[in-house]
Amino acid sequence: MKQLSLWSFTPAGPLAAKDLKSLPSIGRTTQRDLRLIKGIRELSILFVSDNGSFMPLKLKAKIGEAGKGDKLNQKLPSPIVNADSKVYWDGAREDRLMIRRCKNCGEKHFLPRHLCPSCWSEDLEWIQSSGRGIVHSYTVIRRTPMEAFRSRIPYIVALIDLEEGPRMMANVIGETALETKIGDLVEVCFEDRQDGAKVPQFRRLKA
User: Pick the residue with more confidence: 81 or 57?
Assistant: First the structure.
């Protein structure tokens, strides 16, 4: 007979290997990834048990202030701005999500570029997006090649379908980010970086 069981833990300091010894089984790779996360203040794992064997169904980690909202690690890389993207990044500094619209065919698009990807017209303008969208797809990043992002793992990278039509890639951040599902409603938020720069990210909305 299958049964559900919940394991919760509040570490006194950085998560260590000994803290995870009481777990039925989450695999060595997952244990190592959890120990790389800085600032875990509560860890909960839901297991299903069947005839003495355990399988994790859902993992939720609450982290400290550095992972709760829009103002994350100021040491993360700042955007690289070029002529095509300058208005986009300038808008982000003012908490505005800017996208391109073609005056010739009306197509709205992202990434910023100097030609319409639909009709190749150069007659483009910038418009402000509502910042609302739906998660088209997502992945959970558990390993990162860049040291600057290591404190954030695991984190969500998602494809967001904006209300206006364009699809863009961004992180889903916030306390419930790891609960992200395809079809979730999301809204843009702006993550502080160095020198006043901001990066458009998204957070989940209640249905």
Answer: 81
